Amino acid sequence: MAQLNKTEIGAFLAKQGILIAFAAFMIGFALANQRFIELDNVFGVIRSSAILGVMALGVTFVVIGGNLDLSVGSMMSFSTIVVLDLHDKLGPGLAILAMFALTLALGAFIGFLVGYLKLNSLIVTLGMLSAIHGLTLTWSGGKNMDIADKSGTWFSVFGQERVMGIPVPILIFALLAVALSLLLSKTPFGRKVYAVGGNGQAATFSGIPRARVVFLTYIVSAFCVATAGLLQASRSLGSQNTVGQGMELEVLAAVILGGASLMGGAGTVFKTVIGVLILGFIQNGLLLVGLDFYVQYIVTWIIIILAVWLDVAAKRGRLWSPIA
Amino acid sequence: MNLTRKMALACTTAVLGTAAAAETMTIGITQNNVGVDSYQTTYEKAFIAAAEADPDVEVVVLDAGGDVARQIAQVEDLIQQEVDAIIIWPTNGEAVIPAVRKAHQADIPVVVTNSNIAEAGFDFIASFSGPDNITQGSRAAEIMCDKFKDMGIEDEAGIVQISGQPGYTTAIERAKGFEDRLPEVCPNVTLMETQPGDWNREKAQQVMEAFLVKYDDIDGVYAGDDNMGVGALNAVKAAGRDGIIFVGATNFAVGYEAMAAGDYWGSIYQSPVDDAEAALQTAIDILNGEDVPFLNYFDTPKITQDNMGEFTKPVF
């Protein structure tokens, strides 16, 4: 009996290593500054992380499908600038529709290149990172984009309002996470994504349309990016052209931290959410502790390495491995 | 007047206009990254307009697109074209020094604009034309202090600072100017904490959210530019806190609007138009053999809700 319990605990640890790491950091920060776990702060952090988080949900699909998406940062800048610009020209409703259409078109283009033309996703999306940045600058003429009448629009509802006391960005993040989690784990499409990323050739031989599945992962990613752009634009009702710059690496860090394999075929939406929350709470926790900001960069890195180590150690049941 | 305009990404064939007048001076400029923000976009337009207004000046306008290697190649192109003077907005204060030295050896005077190069290169440049960021920081401290005195809280106020990107000269100088001046004018105001907002509105908003959780009582916020200041203001509004005095730098349109709305107290007015015109004028003065100070700062005055009527709304 005792033996069984130990095995059960072991199996749980192996499966949820990253969750334990997350809990450990939360307790640590809460001890350092009790305001860390006040509801306002927790909501604040999740609300700020929602933008990164929504993007990470989409990239999880791409990564599990065995590819990368480094263009999400500049694509998010594009969505934000476009929806802000069109807001004053078309009105909020049409602007949102047009922005989603344009962002999905960009995703479709990348999906076509990577899926159907079988080009290397690293090269394609790295190139798109600059190309889309150029597109954004061309659209805006390099100027910051602001909504003229900030108090007279319902557009702010996505980024600033609360429903039943919960900030709307958190609700959108949560709803999308649940929906995409179901899509990935409970539908034939989701299983095909794992199959294509796990072993592309085997997937092809079993009749899975590999190109179409890869194409669709980029569509999911672009949809998430458009949602993130909407949240970003609605939150500040104005933006710089570089608002998403560098976020592609944070997104990727969150996805990998959540345990998705860069080789494809492994990962879950739920663990990506944990990865996002770890990154968000580290940043906030270090601020509340009041660490000098030059040191924060180093400590952030140390915490991420610790989290990954805990995760790996839990999986193999020991802290280090004498044989590689 | 002739204007030669060459796009950054176009091939680098020299396309000099018809140099008819004997007195015409040709000035080449290589900019940092036009289009990356509104300041630089406006700067370029103002520079071209100022050159067009002067019949004796012909300009070659280049943009490095933020790329050091491209900027070095552009300086070499300008040397090849035998322009009379070169204006450079460094993409990197260290890496452009060899190129600047080459121009110096070719007897072409170099004017650095907006952000200075590293001191190791000072021997090779004729002048630096740009804003004095230390003065901007200390003026911001004075604006903050004066406002606290008006409110009668100069003996108990506590403030936070949101600085620019760590490691950037402009960020460091503004913070230094502010931190040095504040205790001189308002010795009892406490600067509780400084964190970087990386010149990014969203990041500044996150930093301010954390400050609001951490400190129950914040009387003032100093931000390294208005973009970050407005981000902090958004956080304060969302949290429903009020009575916080915001002072920024580089007055942006959003900052100006927030001032007009009464939400934002003051800033430093730094016009890209003044910046561009000062750079061109510095180069012209040098070519005319006039005495130009080595650090040729253009004025960046204080702007607050009280005097904002004297300034036009920034276009960026």
Provide a compact summary of the structure.
The complex is a heterodimer of chains A (324) and B (316). By secondary structure, chain A is an all-alpha fold.
Spell out the helices and strands of chain B N to C: EEHEHEHEEHEHEHEHEHEHEE
Separation, N- and C-terminal Cα atoms of chain A:
33 Å
Mean pLDDT of chain A: 90
The amount of helix of chain B comes to 25-40%
Weakly predicted, low-confidence segments of chain B: 1-22
* Largest sheet descriptor of chain B: 7 strands, parallel
State the share of residues found in helices of chain A, binned by percent. Answer: over 70%
Share of residues in strands of chain B: 15-25%
* Averaged pLDDT of chain B: 89
Q: What is the CA-CA span between the terminal residues of chain B?
A: 28 Å
Using the 3D structure, state the CATH architecture of the largest domain in chain B: 3-Layer(aba) Sandwich
Main β-sheet description of chain A: 2 strands, antiparallel
Number of helices of chain A: 14
Q: Outline of chain B, from the CA principal axes? A: elongated
How many domains of chain B?
2
Largest sheet: spatial strand order of chain A: 1-4
Gyration radius from CA atoms of chain A, angstroms = 20 Å
Class by helix and strand content of chain A? mainly alpha
Q: How is the quaternary structure best described? A: heterodimer
| Number of E strands of chain A | 4
What is the CATH topology of the largest domain in chain B? Rossmann fold
Task: Please explain how this structure is put together.
The complex is a heterodimer of chains A (324) and B (316). Chain A has 14 helices and 4 strands. Chain A is mainly α and 324 residues long. The longest helix of chain A has 27 residues, at 210-236. Chain A has a two-stranded antiparallel ribbon. A two-stranded antiparallel ribbon of chain A has the order 2-3. Chain B has 2 domains: 3-131 and 271-299, Rossmann fold; 133-269, Rossmann fold. Chain B has 9 helices and 13 strands. Chain B has a 7-stranded parallel β-sheet with strand order 1-3-2-4-5-6-12, with helices on both faces. The two termini of chain B are 28 Å apart. Chain A: This is ABC transporter permease.
